Every structure is written in C-alpha cells, then in structure tokens.
Amino acid sequence: MWILSGLCLISLVSAATVIELLGRIKLESDFDYVLVMKNRNFSLPEQIWNGSTLAKDIMERVHVPVLQLDEKVSYFLHNSLSRRLVSMVFLSSGNLEEHRGLLTALVLNLRHMTTSRVIFLIQSEASSEVAYKLFKDCWRKKLLNVMVLFKDYEVEERLYEPSLQAIAIFPDRLRDFHGYEMPVIIGGTSPRMIAYRNKKGQVVYEGTVGHFMMAFQQKYNVRFVQPLQGKNPLDFAPSMQTVAA
C-alpha cells in the first residue's frame, strides 16, 4: 500500500506556476532552501520558462537559496546543510531508465532526509503509468513525500465553488501508515515482554514492550510483522542479544 502523495496534474505554462507552488508549500511548512536537480545535458524549454533563470526567480520571489546539482554530483546534505528543504527534479521524459543516474544521485543527496518534500517535473503529457512507476521507485528508495507535475493535462470544464477547507499539499506521511505491514524483530524477556496464545490461538504480546507495540500500532495505523520469526513465536532472544545480532 502506497502512502505517497497522489498524482498531481498541473500545466507548466510558465515558471510562475512552480514559483507559486513553492510559495504555498512554504506557507504550509517553512523550508530553508531548494535543491534543483536535472541531467547535465537537459535544458529547460524556453517556451515554458519564458527565458527566465529558474534559480534567480526562486531566490527573488520565494526568498530562499537554491542549490543546483546534476546526476554526476552528490553530497551528504544532512551533515552540512539544513534538513528543511524542498527538492525539485526535472525529467525530460517519462522514461525513468533514462534518468536512473539522476534518481540515484537524488537519493544520495537526501540520505537521512527521505521524509523531505520532493517535486518531480516531467516534460511529457500526464500518464498514470509513469506516475505509478515513479512512485513505486520512490517507495523502494524510501522517499515518502513525493509530488509529480506533468507538462500538460486534459482541459475540463468545471464549476468551482468556494470552500474554506484547507488541504495540505504535503501532509505528514508518518502520522498514518494506512495499515502498512512494518517488518520488525521482537526481542525481550519477562516481565518487559510476555508472549502467549489467546483462546483463538493468536499470539498476544503483553508487558511493557507489548503494550507499547499495541499503542504504537493503534496510533499510527500500522501492523507489525516478523519476517524472520522462529518456529516458536513465543520464544525469542533477550533484547540485547537481538540488537547485537
């Protein structure tokens, strides 16, 4: 089950669209700088950006510094710069294999910051298939807050009505895991961890650790699973031995 941002279709008719989006994101949750990434041989189309310099526009209108990198360069940003950033990644097409190096460099730049916000701008028409593949790849790379903006979308006639409901562009993905099965390794000894089977034959964990596990699963809507569970689920190693292993 995916807990990434849903598909977002916005026509990139000018740089103002992205600048406005960054401004809204900044109001929602402030950030200290923008990371812009694109392949070294990819130039932004003049008809889309009106010949303007993207980094200059962001710095002047959003009032944050801009760091520009390509697929050949990666830094451990977590150790040298603020963790409060928004990443903008430009893809010249929906063929993800052509941009594998760029995606790899992005993940290296965002080590220990994979919950930070990432915006992909794809210079192709909207495609649910491309978005699904990109979201799936981001999930495998542990990028949790992802938005996709395509070059164009099908125009529809709609009657809009004013609404006072505020919808977050990047909601907190770690507050609700939507029933995700999270792999864990359980260890401990009595009385901190007490395991037994109930009348239905289900394994129940009690004790301090058991109650913490139950409270955590209920609060964050997640379910713990043990991929490396032994033959006897009631028998597990003490916590220190488990950590050492």
Automatic annotation (TrEMBL):
It comes from Drosophila rhopaloa. This is Uncharacterized protein LOC108054013. Residues 1-15 form the signal peptide. Keywords: Signal.
